[in-house]
Batch of 2 targets.
Target 1
Amino acid sequence: MLLRLLLIICIHIPVVCCCQQLIMLNDSANVSIRGMSVVNDNIVWVSGSNGMTGRSVDGGNTWQWKQVKGFEKNDFRDIEAFDAVTAVIMSIGDPAYILKTNDGGNTWKVVFEDKRKGMFLDAMEFWNEQSGIVIGDPVEGKIFIARTFDGGDTWQHLPVENYPAAKDGEAFFAASGTNVRALSLSEAVFVSGGQYSRFFMRDEKTMLPVLQGSQTTGANSIAVFNNKNRKAAKQMVVVGGDFTADTLAVKNAALSADGGKTWVEPQTPPHGYRSCVEYISRSRLITCGTSGVDVSEDGGKNWKLISKESFHVCRKAKNGKAVFLAGKGGRIAQLLWQ
C-alpha cells in the first residue's frame, strides 16, 4: 500500500531551535534504492536493484514502479531525471550499461555499453540537461570516465592518456550516485575509497582524513555548495566510513572551506557510516546511511542524529526545496525542516 504514513521523528533540545520531521512515503517495493533524482518539489525518480525504477509526479504521494524489460537482474545505482518523462539510468557491473527513457519509463534505450571485463560504473553527474559525466572503477589502473553533451543520448570515453591513475586498492563506491559532483559550469570533482581515499579535482589529488585501508572503507559521497552564479565552489563536505561497521562514528566525514585544498574533521561527526550527503542550504545539510540519518545546521561542523532508520540516498530538489530519502525495501521518506 502506498500510504503516506506520518512517521514523525523530532529532535527535542532544552533550548528550542528546530524540529526535523521524516515523513514515510513508501516502504513496500521489491527494490533496494540507491539512485534518486529530484527534479522539483513534485517530480521524483528513483532506481535500484531488480531492474526497477520508480517515479512520482505528486511530491511522493503516489509512485509508479516499473521493471526495465530485459534488465530484470541489473542494479541501477544512479539516475538523472530532467522532467516527468525524461531520465537516464546507470547499471553497475559488467557489461556496463546506461539507458535513457523519453516516455516516463515505459521504454528504455541503451545509450552506452562496455563489455570489458572489470567494468563497474559508480555514479553520474549532470551540469545541465545536455552535459554530464559518469565515473567507474579503475580498469588496468586507470579510473574510467565518459562524457555526454547531448543529454545522455551518446557517451564518449576520455582518451586513455587522460584517465586519472588510481593507487593499488583504490576504487569507488556505487552507494548513492554522489561520489562525483559538479564544481562549476564545466568542472566536476569526485572522491574515492578502499585502501586509499582521495579527493580528485583536475590534476590534483588530495588525501582525505577519513577511514581507509580496506575494501570497505573510505569516502562514499561528496556534497558541493554551489552559488547561483555557479562559480567554482569552495564549501564541500565528504562522508563515508566503513560500511561493515556502520555504527562506527570515527573518521566518517570531512569538511573543506577552500575548494578541496585542505580538509578537516567535524567537531561532532555523523553517528555512523554514511553513504550520502546533501546541502539543503549553505549551513544546513543532511546525511544518511544504513545506521541512520543526521542533520547539521552549521555547515557540517556538528551533526545530530534524527533517525536510526536505514537509508542509502538523500537528495534535494534541483528546482525547489523538497528533500527526499530512499533505501532498501522501497523505503522512501521526505524531510521536513521546521
Target 2
Amino acid sequence: MAKLLKGKEVAAALNEQSAQKAANLKERGITPTLAILRVGEKGDDISYEKGAMKRCAAVGVEVKNIILPEDVGQEEFYQTLDDLNHDPSVHGILMFRPLPKHLDNEKARNAIAPEKDIDGCSDGSLAGVFTGNGRGFAPCTAEAAIAVLEYYDIDITGKNAVVLGRSLVVGRPLAMMLMQKNATVTICHTRTQNMAEITRKADIVISCMGRIEILDSRFFSEGQTVIDVGITWSNEKKKVCGDCLFEEVEPVVRAITPVPGGVGAVTTSLLVRHVIEAAEKSVS
C-alpha cells in the first residue's frame, strides 16, 4: 500500500507559518490584503473565491471582492485593474480566468502589476521562474506540487522526474522549479511517443494533464512517488477525479497524492502566503 501524501497536513503547516507572519505585519500597522477580481458568475470561480476567502480569514488576510458583470466594457475592466495596481492597501491581485471572450486574456494577465501578481500568471512572473532570479511569484499549483514533495521529505536532488503536461500554468514552470531543485526533468505531452516507457523509469512522476484517469498501472513501477495535479469533474462518476486511476496505481507505487485531498488543498494556502510575502516586500 502506497503512502498517501495528503495535502491537508501540508496546508496546515503553511497556514500556521502564514498566520504568524500576518500577525507580525499587523503589529507594524500593515494588514495583508488580497483583491479578488471576478467577471461574471461562473460556479467554479465562485467556489474557489469562497475557499480563498475562508483561507484568508483563517490566517489574518483581508479580502476585497471586486465583481464585474459578464458584459463589462474593456475601459471599465482595465480601469478597475489599474486602480487595484495603484491601491497601496492591496498587496495581491487574484484575477479569475478565462475572462469573457470580449476581453483579451493575454493582455489582462500581463496588466497585473508584477509585485501584486500573487498567482504567477503574468509573463514577468513566469520569467522569474524560468530564470530563477527570485522575482515575482510562481504559479500556485506548480509550487504546491513542490511543497508536497518537500513536506514529506521526498528527495528531489539528482532524481529523474517526469512532468506530464506542458502548460504555462503548471507543466513548464513546474519543470523549471524541479530543475532548480537539481532534478533531471523530462516533459511529456500529447505528442510524446511511448509515454509509459518514460514514466516507468522515473523516480518522481507529476501529472498535470487534466484528463480523467488516463494513467493506469501500466505507466508506473515500484518505488515511485506520484503527484497527481489533475482535478477534473467526472459526470459519469459524479465526483472529482485525477489523471491517475487511483485504484490501479496506488498498489504499485511507493507514495501518491489522493484526488481530492492532495495538491488542491495546498494551492490556496500558497496563494495566501504569496499575499503576505507581497505585503512584506512592500515595506522592506
